[in-house]
Amino acid sequence: MRTVNSQSTRYNPPSGTENLLDLLIKAVDDSVLHSVVTRSVTFSDHRSVIGEMRLNRQPAPVVSFRHRDLKNINLDASVST
Question: Fewer Cβ atoms within 10 A, N terminus or C terminus of the chain?
Fold first, then answer.
């Protein structure tokens, strides 16, 4: 395991100190999380930690639809015996 972010995530204005409190931790061989940055926000003394994830997704299945022309339905042909 290793810490992904190394920038301080909390700023205490009265004392002027910065701390690394909010950690992102991942396995050493994990390549999913990358490009982690820390950004200041105006509404909190904690900074936001933002990263990108590389995910291997399966392609979406091909979906096809069939329809009937409701104006030309042969009711006799659609009744099963």
Answer: C
